[in-house]
Amino acid sequence: MKPSAQGPGGTGTGTGRVRAVGPDEPAGASGAVRVPAQPGAADVNREQRDQVRDRDGGERRDGGDGRVRGAGEPGGAVRGEHTHSEPPAPRPRVLVQRSSVRGQVLDALRDALMAGELRPGEVYSAPALGERFGVSATPVREAMQQLAVEGAVEVVPNRGFRVVRRGDRELAELAEVRALLEVPVWLRLARTVPAERWARLRPLAEATVRAASSGCPATYAEADRAFHRAVLSLAGNEQLVGVAGDLHRRAQWPRAGTPAGRGRADLIADAHEHTALLDALIAGDQDVVRALVGEHFGATP
């Protein structure tokens, strides 16, 4: 067994490799993989090391505990081996600690975009961003490709990625599409979902208020999407949740000229619309719900 493996973007020990851990070393050290200790030559009965062929043609060897096993299984067993009616030994548990470097870089890039640290119209290369985050260019390039799918950046051949300039017209179009998609669903759910199920969303609505009070656009954007996602999930339509979530994220990217997005006061006002909507939904007040939904999405239901 080779004790090292290359993960995406260099996960594991920090060098992009997963190494075996010694018997006295903690399993979680440096993202390593614990490899079960193998029996030494002194532990193997020489008579039982003679090669034996089972009915499937697999080679069987002694695993150091007196049992005869074949190659390929823990201790050397293969499928179909003869174990003299003994129950098969359990496969040793492998303890692996991994982190998604690509996912972490993607989150960091989204935060940088929301905070205006990556400016609209500017081109950024994967190697330069990788140096900034202390990783190789590969996970940065993969994360930027995802941001390109989301419409936040565009690929510039042989140069890198350009942050997209978002104009008022594009954001207005996104808001209109979101309203056409979500408003009817909210109104239908208001008529069909019982009050106790709406009450379960209270922590998420309150989380948006706390996030808005922090003044951090990236923190609020995440809390905002979580609340809307939970509401739409009540419809039981995964495609709806996915499409609406993509539109929501696109609508959150800052417009050109205002790289940091909306101010703290605007975020707080938007968050309080969540709690007001939830109060009306729990109370079953359809008229208030209709008015608040229209206001929240900038639409006339």
Distance between the termini: 63 Å
Element pattern in H and E: EEEEEHEHHEEHHHHHHH
Number of helices: 10
For the largest beta sheet, what order do the strands appear in spatially? 3-4-5
Short précis:
This protein is mainly alpha-helical and 301 residues long. Helices cover 47% and strands 8% of the residues.
Describe what this molecule looks like in 3D.
The chain has ten helices and eight strands. Strand 7 (153-156) and strand 8 form a beta hairpin. The chain is elongated. 47% of the residues lie in helices and 8% in strands. Residues 1-83 and 92-98 have low confidence and may be disordered. Helix 4 (168-192) runs antiparallel to helix 8 (238-252). By secondary structure, the protein is mainly α.
Please write out the topology.
Layout: E1 20-21, E2 33-34, E3 52-53, E4 59-62, E5 68-70, H1 101-114, E6 123-124, H2 126-133, H3 137-149, E7 153-156, E8 160-163, H4 168-192, H5 195-199, H6 202-214, H7 217-233, H8 238-252, H9 264-283, H10 286-297
Parallel strand pairs: 1-2
Antiparallel strand pairs: 3-4, 4-5, 6-8, 7-8
Helix pairs in contact: 1-3, 2-3, 4-8, 4-10, 6-7, 6-9, 7-8, 7-9, 9-10
Notable characteristics:
single chain, 301 residues, mainly alpha, three-stranded antiparallel sheet, 10 helices, 8 strands, elongated
